[in-house]
Amino acid sequence: MVRCFLIHTICPVNDLGSGDSRVLYSRVFGPDESLQSGPHGELNPEERRLLQKEKLTLVARQVRSAACLSREASGRALVEVMAGEEALVLQEADSGVLRLRAGDLFSAEVSALWLGVQRLGFTLVCEAHENLLLAEGTLRNLTRHCLEHLHMLGPGSEVLLKSDRIDVLLSRLLPHGQLLFLNHRFAQSLEKEVAAYMAK
What we know:
By secondary structure, this protein is α+β, with helices and mostly antiparallel strands. It has helices at 33-36, 45-74, 86-91, 132-150, 163-173, 184-198; strands at residues 2-9, 23-28, 94-100, 110-117, 120-127.
């Protein structure tokens, strides 16, 4: 099962510090057991929400660090993208996997798969036993739809204003946090359904 999906910054933004990352969108699937039991069991809902937000920010910061190291090692510089070049940018995206030990941020060990596309990071946090190839395919598919249909790389793109459309994408491609094995026919059907909704 997927624990959460994040869209966040991975390059410095003017009003952020050099090591910070801003979470632009997050969706958590299912309850976080570490917030329900132990020392956090008696927290009120607002305190739980803030603690969960802090955990997601720490995940985004770790992914940002890994993405920056990957970019420095590859020696590639960011090139501004024109509209319609989303598929090319996605092919050249930096990617990786982080293992987060049990107790660090989550009650059990999890894997964080990430894609760094220009200044945006797309991260999928999965349980340790999940099929990582399937999770990577799902993450690339989600990222492709976000880039193509929501034009997130263009000037003036506001991810925060498009959260309802991202929610619809997640409900179709990652229902209730479950990774889907898709055959060709079902994948085409989903593509048509998502394209029809995004055209509205």
